[in-house]
Amino acid sequence: MKKRNLCLVLLFIPLIVFAVDYYYVDIAGSNVTGDGSEGRPWGTIQHAIDNVTDPADNDIVIYISAGTFNLWDGVTTNTITIGEVHDLTLQGAGADETIVQGHAIQGSANGRIFSISSNFGDVSLHGMTIRHGNIWTEGGAIDADDHTYLYIQDCNICYNHADDRGGAIVNNSGCFMGIYNSSIHHNTTDGDGGAISNYEHVHVTFSPQLDIANSTISHNYAAEDGGGIHAYSNDFGFNPGSRLHLDNVTISENDSGTRGGGVCIGREASCETINNTIIANNTSDSGDGEDFYYYGDFINDEGYNIVEYSDGYDFSTNGTNYTGHQPGLNLSSTLNLNNSVNGTYTLKTTSGSIAIDNGDGSIYDQRYAPCNDDKDIGAYEWWADSGDYPREPSNHVTGFSAEAQIDISIDLSWTENDGDIPPDGYLIKASTNPILPPDDDTAPADDTDLTDGDGNVIVADGTTSYTFSNCSSSTTYNFAIYPYTDSYGYYDYKTDYDASIYVDATTEKTEPTNHVT
Fold first, then answer.
1. Residues 96, 130: Cα–Cα separation, whole Å
2. 467-471 CB contacts, 8 Å cutoff, 24+ apart
3. What pLDDT digit, counting tens, does each position of 332-351 carry?
4. Residue among 246, 238, 243 nearest 262 (CA)
5. Statement: the pTM of the whole predicted model exceeds 0.85
6. Are 423 and 394 in contact (CB under 8 A)?
């Protein structure tokens, strides 16, 4: 009876629907004459945040144009401050297009880039470079505090400094932070966590959690522990402690002054999951845990990791891991775009690397390259030593049309519409039923006989027409055309919906075969 009463109560809980409001910031916009619309954008990010409507109740998306947004006013770095919100997204034009910086010159700023205290609200930073922050406390680029839920995606966070901890980022007690498809590099601190400090203060209600996936952390320096990442709890057992998750991450070329050149899991901290991750080619000046140093609560090692040198935890107990010096790692020491579609930097592997096909995880890497056979270990999926990989064509064709002919054939024609990524060819699908988009991977065998109701054909780039000659009479056929790229036999189709790529035509009724008798 109690369960039934509970269900009745739940039925009467009102459905809360949050509105989504869109605003625009442009490097050529104005805080005086602008109104935040696409036609009259504002000029600065802080002005947009301060002037959106009902941020504590509405979902807010602020589009930020390409260009360099300099927070330095000649005297001070004007840190972008985000307070209580419900759901705020700052959407840049791409990590290689939108740049938010504390000063034009590295090391010359006197403040960080973002201070975020959202009070359980969601904040997302997408598609931008965040650089040149410089702070005397913690979090050279980003300080997340006061139960902030922060999501960082498709970003470069680089060349920042903090005197205390977290050269780029500090994720404080009570906060959740997710970092996805991003690169955090060339940051420094005089304390712990050259790139990131996941730090729990004394006796707080919630522990900080840091999730990192499909990302690269490299060329960072901490004068103390954790050249790349430092996780630590100062809570003395009051809470579970600082929590860390690593999935498809490459942590390399970092350095620390004391322990854990790549990662240091400190007191009462936990690495709740680590899988498909490379932690290699890091150094510590003391020689303690050059790649990984551990004296925390526990580690959940899910395997498929490459961790060369570790102190405090033995990764070799999991048979899917690789430990010790790996002369066949073949991992570059220099960051590069490597054909990244999101503008973030990666360290690439080359042919023969032990990381290739020995992983287990997501089907896309940091650059959004699809999996090539079996998943590789780390944030980079190898396709070719040049860095090439399958990329979906930019555009659909235009002017796609179908015309039935008197001989029970159907002529198709279209106009090519090459964009930044031109197609290698087109898949044309035909059916008397509704057509479903193809799955990426391989090309179907040609089937040009439509008398059974279905067919398809592959035609090369440069072709603008095709005729299906073998059709049934008095039959309506649906057609769709999908451009694709072909990389080493992997077909990547452009399948996003566009009504113009779907057409139909009805064949004529043929005359009877015989006269009456």
1. 11
2. 467/409, 467/410, 467/411, 467/412, 468/409, 468/410, 468/412, 468/430, 469/407, 469/409, 470/409, 471/408, 471/409, 471/410, 471/507
3. 999 999 989 899 999 999 99
4. 246
5. no
6. no
